[in-house]
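Ticket #4471: structure output looks truncated?

Reporter: J.K.
Steps to reproduce: submitted the chain below (602 residues) through the standard prediction queue, then opened the result file.
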Amino acid sequence: MEAPKLLLLILLIPCDLFIGKSLGDGVTHEEAKELRDEVREMFYHAFNGYMNHAFPRDELRPLSCGGEDTLGGYALTLIDSLDTLALLGDRERFTASVEWIGKNLRFDINKTVSIFETTIRILGELQGMRIPSYDDELLHLAEDLARRMLPAFDTPTGIPFGSVNLLHGVDENESKITSTAGGGTLTLEFGILSRLTNDPIFEQVAKNAVRGLWARRSKINLVGAHIDVFSGEWTQKDAGIGTSIDSFYEYLLKAYLLFGDEEYLFIFQEAYKAAMKYLFNDPWYVEVNMNSAALVWPLFNSLQAFWPGLQVLAGDIEPAIRTHAAFFSVWRRYGFTPEGFNLATLSVQQGQKSYPLRPELIESTYWLYKATRDPRYLDAGREILASLQYGARCTCGYCHISDVEFHKQEDHMESFFLAETVKYLWLLFDLAAGPDNLVENGPYKYIFSTEGHLLPATPQISLVREHCSYFGAYCRNSNLRLKTHSPESAQTNSSGSQTRHADSSFLSRSSYQSSSPVYGLKGLCPGLTYEQRFGISFMSPVDSSSEDENSSQRETTEVQSHSVVLNSNPDPEVPLSGPHNDHDNDPAHVPQEESPSSKQKR
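Returned output as attached by the reporter:
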């Protein structure tokens, strides 16, 4: 079929193709509470199944009630579930989990792991959790893990290898090809680690990777799917918002929201405008050649479903509503979203019939309900929950669906089901029932990582460049010294890759180093509590003098009103923008919200 005719066909596909005029009778307040409780039970059915039958292996085999190691063999599902336990208020299991991880988790193992998956699933969850008697054990583990991944960044482009051995570094036979999402979805976790450890190297390498990718964009500001990390040549020039690229876009905006770095916002604005101009065929998205914008693939990829949620954060609500309706129509047709849905044949793409319990559509449903309070999104959430309960629930957990047309179950449950899928469903119904959770009522605003982990916009993370003008900010501290990694002091070996810890001297070759943030020149003000630094604690309140209480109250008020931190909007209704007819409109407006997740997956 000729490309112009195919594009015309796509444009003519209505977003309500499979949707009736009404999405349902509407979810009442009481029903929202019942649905929230049902999602809680869903979590514990799967979590208990993992703990009873799979722990400490990585993931659960829910049909056979066994376990399997899929990433590093270090209790992946338990780690990935930590902040879901915190969100549900389960102090007992949260405390036990943190204690076990602190005592038993080690990364000095001869395992080759994915940089992307290890960063989003493990590294992002080991920062900022506290229990009584906690002494930064998880933060120390996170720093150790990140240092073991640093050798992957020692490339001419600054874009990291896709994998690294945690004991020996990068193997000499490691592939030089990596995905755009794999290199561009590290900024949040690595940036936070730099700010918590006062060591800039982590944020530097992650930012240089983004710059390395963006510097190789096409003349029309599109990026491809896979790139050679040594030559900088694109090996797959298909541009899209789904597989292998998705969270590159996501982390550009979220890095700006969390860190206030306008360079990320500028790149996001340019990348977003190009995506809406060349990839958007209202209400669907297609894949095109990154240089010519010629149509390559008229396919709805299930990973695209994160995009409406990202558009909510970017303030572009109208196209988000239309695209979500189109994506949800596919779910309603099959009961799940297949990995691929062909927009030309309006059928499941051959070889892409599975649904591995992905969270992206649920994530966007949550963000659109949060932005609009439109009850249609509660109806959508109720239908998604029913599909999971009747089609995916199995003996010890929830199963992958290997064929969405026949609802055939497969004996696997990825950790992100508990980290994201269940979490976003619970947040959706909790928001409707009257929210009672740390995301809505906590001391800070939270950004969601692409794995659904909660990243608090605390002063230590979001205001690192601020002057000490109020209690709890960052003060000059003469006892702190700037940590540096000079070429002269770095130890290398003959291969430059087989090293247990990173040779950071390669940073000296980067022209970007001078503009990276500086740490160690500012220290924590006296009296800054752990809760103020990290935004989460399960410790009992400690009595303090009225003077301390007043100081703490002043600090909290001033931090929340600072322009760099995302401010809450007392009006739950976010006004919708007008019809999105001009693809070149600047999406600079960022709503006062937190943030969602999506993945390169897997």
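Triage note (M.O.): checked the attachment and the full token line is present. Confidence is low (pLDDT under 50) at residues 1-24, 467-602.
Status: closed, working as intended.
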